[in-house]
Specification:
alpha+beta; 6-stranded antiparallel beta sheet; 5-stranded antiparallel beta sheet; 12 helices
C-alpha cells in the first residue's frame, strides 16, 4: 500500500522553533514566508518586486486572493473545472471517478466493501496525504481508516502554517476515487509547468513523496534535457515517457496548455495509463516555491511568469465562485448490485 502522510514535525526541542511547531504559525504571513525562503536559499527574497519564480510564488501566497485562485486547492472543484472543459470540447482527457466524498467513515466503509477495484483515499483540502489500496477493503484497517477520516478532516499546515490561501477555502472532506494503474503497472506521472497558458517544462517523475524520488525533464518540444536538478535521471537512462507511443506524447503539451490557459502560472499534473491520458490535479503552490533550483532556471521561469493585475475585473468570476458552492457534486461509480 502506497501512502503519504504529509510533513513530519521533528522531535523536541527543535519542534519548538520548527515551522510546524506551536509558535511559527502565529507570526505574520509575510514574515513566515521570508523566514522559510531564507531557510532554503540562505538569502532574503524580494517579494514586493519579485523577478525570480521562487520569489513570485511567495508574492502569490502573500497577495493573490482572486476568485480564479480560490477553488484551485479543492480537488472536487478541480474535477468540475476539467469536466466543463471536456463538455465544451476544449480538451479530451479522462477523469478518475469519485467513489465517495464526505466525513462519515462508516458510510465510506459500506461503499468500499462492495467496490471491487483499486482506490485512492485522500483529503479534498490538503496535500501529500493519501493511501492507495489495490482492491476493495483488502489490506484496509477499518480502525486506521476511521482515524484518518478524523485526522485528515482538520485544518493543516497548508492553511495554518504555509499560508496557502486556497487550501483554507477548500471544502474539508475526504475523497475516495478510483485507482489509476496498479501496483505492478503504475501510471506514467507527468507534471507540466505552465506560464500564461504555455508549457515550459515537463517532469516525468518516479516515487513521489518517497526517498526514491527521481525525475526526467523535457522541453515543450518533447526533447529530453539535463537540468542539474537533484535526483535527476541520467540522460543515458530511458524513462517511461520515452516508451510511450508518439501519439500520446504529442497530446500532453496541448492538453496542459488548454487546462492552464486562465492562469498566470499553474502546474498541471497528468497520468498516462492503459493508453489514455488522465487528469491528476492542478498545483497552484508547487512546493511553495521552496525547493532550491538552479539560479538560471529560477530566473528563466521568473521571466516567463507575468504576475497578474489583482485589481483587474475577471469576466469569469461567477464561474469560478460556482466551483466552490456548498453542494458537493460527486460523480459516483456504483458498486455491483446497486440499482
Amino acid at each position: 500500500m502506497a501512502a503519504g502522510n504529509g510533513p513530519t514535525l521533528p522531535k523536541f526541542p527543535r519542534s519548538i522553533i520548527h515551522p510546524l511547531g506551536p509558535l511559527f504559525r502565529h507570526l505574520p504571513l509575510s514574515l513566515r514566508r521570508h523566514l522559510m525562503y531564507w531557510n532554503v536559499y540562505r538569502k532574503w527574497g524580494n517579494f514586493r518586486e519579485p523577478t525570480l519564480a521562487s520569489e513570485k510564488m511567495q508574492w502569490r501566497i502573500i497577495n493573490d486572493r482572486r476568485p480564479l485562485i480560490s477553488w484551485t486547492a479543492d480537488k472536487l472543484a478541480q474535477k468540475e473545472y476539467i469536466r466543463s472543459l471536456v463538455a465544451s470540447g476544449a480538451i479530451d482527457v479522462r477523469i478518475p471517478e469519485t467513489l465517495w466524498a464526505g466525513t462519515d467513515a462508516q458510510d465510506l466503509l459500506q461503499l468500499i466493501e462492495r467496490y471491487p477495484g483499486g482506490w485512492v483515499f485522500k483529503p479534498n483540502h490538503s496535500s501529500s496525504r493519501y493511501r492507495i489500496y489495490e482492491q476493495g477493503l483488502n489490506g484496509v484497517s477499518t480502525s486506521e481508516l476511521r482515524e484518518l477520516v478524523h485526522k485528515w478532516s482538520a485544518r493543516d499546515e497548508e492553511e495554518l502554517v504555509y499560508g496557502n490561501w486556497a487550501y483554507g477555502l477548500a471544502r474539508h472532506l475526504l475523497v475516495a476515487e478510483e485507482r489509476i494503474g496498479s501496483a505492478t503497472t503504475p501510471p506514467v506521472d507527468l507534471k507540466i509547468y505552465c506560464y500564461g497558458g504555455k508549457a515550459h517544462v515537463i517532469f516525468n517523475t518516479y516515487g513521489l513523496h518517497t526517498t526514491q524520488w527521481r525525475a526526467a525533464y523535457y522541453t515543450p518540444a518533447l526533447e529530453r534535457v539535463a537540468s542539474g536538478f537533484f535526483s535527476e535521471i541520467p540522460l543515458s537512462e530511458a524513462t517511461e515517457f520515452d516508451a510511450l507511443p508518439i501519439v500520446l506524447q504529442a497530446q500532453v503539451v496541448p492538453l496542459a496548455e488548454a487546462i492552464s490557459a486562465p492562469f498566470d502560472s499553474m502546474r498541471v499534473d497528468l497520468y498516462i495509463a492503459n493508453g489514455a491520458i488522465w487528469f491528476g490535479e492542478l498545483t497552484t503552490y508547487s512546493a511553495s516555491g521552496l525547493i532550491k533550483v538552479n539560479a538560471e532556471v529560477d530566473r528563466d521561469r521568473g521571466g516567463l511568469w507575468q504576475l497578474p493585475d489583482l485589481s483587474a475585473p475577471d469576466p469569469r468570476e461567477a464561474e469560478w465562485r460556482r466551483l466552490l458552492e456548498p453542494e458537493v457534486k460527486v460523480h459516483y461509480r456504483r458498486a455491483p448490485g446497486d440499482e
